[in-house]
Amino acid sequence: MTGAPTMPARLATRDALPAVLAMMRAFYAEDRLHFDEVATPRAVSTLLDDASCGAVWLLGELGDAGYVAMTRGFSLEQGGSFALLDELYIQPSARGRGLGAQALALAEMQARAWHVAVLRLEVNHHNPRAKALYLRAGFVDSHRDTLVLDLHAA
Question: What is the pLDDT of residue 51?
Fold first, then answer.
């Protein structure tokens, strides 16, 4: 990845919860993800309240151009602690201006500040534009599938 981000970004706090959730709803609809009206706000609240879990940044001058959510994890294969770039969303009106690449630089900078060796992310197969952005930024396709067991499902 390349240097430090030049776009305005600010760490989101609890007062940003409504704005983050609004952007998440748009992102989830666009990326064909399920937005759980109970679990998702609870998870975002935890992330905003507990820095040991990770962080959310609002992007753009007014914090309305998008957001980046990063979490912390642990993996033997990754050599211990790693960072997960859990979500990156740029509002449609703000796309095409390099904000995605700058957001990735911000994520890399934060991962380095957390002293982790690996920054991971997931990308859906139906989103080749995002995958191309990640590959240009230096991410490598691990050619693995992510399998999920939803423990909250009935």
Answer: 96
What angle in degrees, to the nearest 10, is found between the helix axes of 99-113 and 128-136? 60
Residue 150 pLDDT? 85
With beta carbons less than 8 A apart as the criterion, state whether 114 and 81 touch: yes
3-state secondary structure of 87: strand
SS3 65: coil
Q: What does residue 6 show for φ and ψ, rounded to 5 degrees? A: -110, -10
CA nearest neighbour of 12 among 49, 52, 53: 49
Q: What sign has the CA pseudo-torsion 111, 44, 135, 104?
A: negative
What pLDDT is recorded for position 86? 97
∠ CA(151), CA(16), CA(104), 5° rounding?
A: 75
Averaged pLDDT for residues 103-128? 94
What are the pLDDT digits (tens) for 41-57? 999 999 999 999 999 99
Task: Take residue 37 and report the two structure tokens written for it.
Answer: 């009206």
Are 64 and 19 in contact by the 8 Å Cβ rule? The answer is yes
Cβ atoms < 10 Å from Cβ of 99: 22
